[in-house]
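Following up on my earlier message about flavin-adenine dinucleotide. Here are the inputs again, as you asked, copied directly from the submission form:
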Amino acid sequence: MYEHDVIVVGAGGAGLRAAIAAKNEGADVAIVSKVHPVRSHTGAAEGGINAALREGDSWEDHAYDTMKGSDYLGDAPAIETLCKNSPNEVIQLEHWGMAFSREEDGRVSQRPFGGLSFPRTTYAGAETGHQLLHTMYEQLVKSGVQVYDEWHVLNLAVTDEERPEDRTCHGVVAYDVQTGEISGFRARNGVILATGGPGQAFDHTTNAVSCTGDGQAMAYRAGVPLEDMEFIQFHPTSLPSTGVLISEGVRGEGGILYNAEGERFMFEHGYANNDGELASRDVVSRAELTEVNEGRGIDDEYVHLDMRHLGEERILDRLENILHLAEDFEGVDGLKEPMPVKPGQHYAMGGIETNENGETCVNGLYAAGECACASVHGANRLGGNALPELIVFGKRAGKHAAGAEMEPAKIETGQRGEYETAEIDSPVALGEPGSFGDADAVADGGTVAEGGSVDETSIVERAVEAERRNIDELLSSEGIHHSEVRSDLQQSMTRYVNVFREEEGLKQALRDIREARDRYKDVAVSDPSRTFNTDLLQTIETRNLLDLAEAITIGALAREEFRGAHWRAEAPERKDDEWLKHTMLSWNDGTPELWYRPVMLEGEDKTYEPKTRSY
Ligand SMILES: Cc1cc2nc3c(=O)[nH]c(=O)nc-3n(C[C@H](O)[C@H](O)[C@H](O)COP(=O)(O)OP(=O)(O)OC[C@H]3O[C@@H](n4cnc5c(N)ncnc54)[C@H](O)[C@@H]3O)c2cc1C
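Thanks, got it. Here's what our run produced:
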């Protein structure tokens, strides 16, 4: 058993920032990550980081743009925390040596991005995430944080009181990818989940294969509600054959979208008469698919993104990486031809419910980064707002877990009994009562006995035993390969839970997920070895994707309105009277329970009044 004050699960931008902050508070900190830190998906971020740095800009304007972008489903305390703190956090990155692109006079460059009223996106060419990750990894190494890389976390060690608010997380159970060793990691102060998004629930995604939402699934099954899961961002410019992202930076620099008839459709078809290509992502994705659906797409599938007019010098200076991606993955020379693009799954606005300090409703359990929902992005994230979220909320979670004095959060977590609940209109049974990996399994394996007589170490030890049994069972059983289940799931999600959603399609997705869950009961691992058994680990990840795909679809079916990235054929308008509320989903020992919490529009000095959202 390993023991530390703070255990951070995940080494992307959020995990690294959390670990550095906790260490700076004097805590003994460890990171446990299934991939080496610099292979985390943050490294794929291209376009930039939003921060109000310049004269003429302000955190208040950034907050307003973010709230408008969220379609009024963001919580004002979280949005204001993000926008007030991101300038200092970007300056901190600069002081740590991050190689930002610069103006002639030496100032850090900023470019326009979709939905922003000021060009406030700082960037490092089209490799911002790579630079950010490496800069923070250097600081991590310098700080002496212990890194357990290529350790795959299987579950949390959480007590099993009836109400999630009374439970405590004492650590995690992880599997050493190199050796197959299964070990407990006891956290004296807290566990911070920074495990990224669930993009692999879809088959056309900009996300890496490691983005399987493990932390979200583990927290959900341990009793923490998932919030606003139906809000999935589809980025308008992914390459059709692979899903590889072409950064919004291309449009930020002046790139233009054309349909098959050579029309600049964002203006010519009136989708965004002011901002055109730089409208918010949800607006551009719907416009592209409308063009395709109405017969003006190219090869009935995609549109063109043209940057040739920017000129070779500017492209090489600011977007060189894009040239390589288009050439390598689509065989297109962006200096000479337009690039084919279509919407692809990109980001999860929802996630593990937290407050502004990263706390969840389970004591000692925190979340930050894409896996968390504080909620900054509401129904739609603005480009360039995820990276500041990692560094602002990663730092806050790290400090809080290390015991730093912080202002109490304004956002409350948990307490579902006080709020409106709703029936789920599902054609099939949902969830997985009493099955592998759910809260019951944790309870069987290692939770506190009545009266609290079991000590914290044995809670972790028993959770380890439960996971050993689960792994032994997976390695010894015979049956189908997880990839069959996973690919059917991904295809169903891409078909039915995409940019345009309708009731019957969402119900079909729930049927497909049910079938996939039933087939998963017969899943078997074909590789029996204990070393580098990616087959085993992907089998476990597939189980996580099943739970998360279901959560996304339940939220989408229940929300009968059009808000941000969520469009419903039966209700194509925003309904503020009924739907200014967060979708909350609790695992409830395997039977998902849907409830709603009101959105918080009261900021520090003002209330954000919902307005018609046009660009
Ligand atoms: C192609 C692309 C480009 C983007 N560009 C931008 C941009 O320009 N600007 C912007 O603001 N946002 C951008 N985003 C969004 C942003 O990059 C991500 O939301 C963000 O990087 C996620 O960071 P994270 O730290 O939360 O998770 P990640 O960087 O995904 O890291 C997750 C970590 O968790 C670990 N992990 C996961 N599961 C387990 C487990 N079971 N056990 C142990 N460890 C685990 C992984 O090893 C990894 O270290 C982009 C996203 C994509 C996909």
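One observation from looking it over: Residues 119 and 566 are 27 Å apart (CA to CA). Hope that helps, and feel free to reply on this thread.
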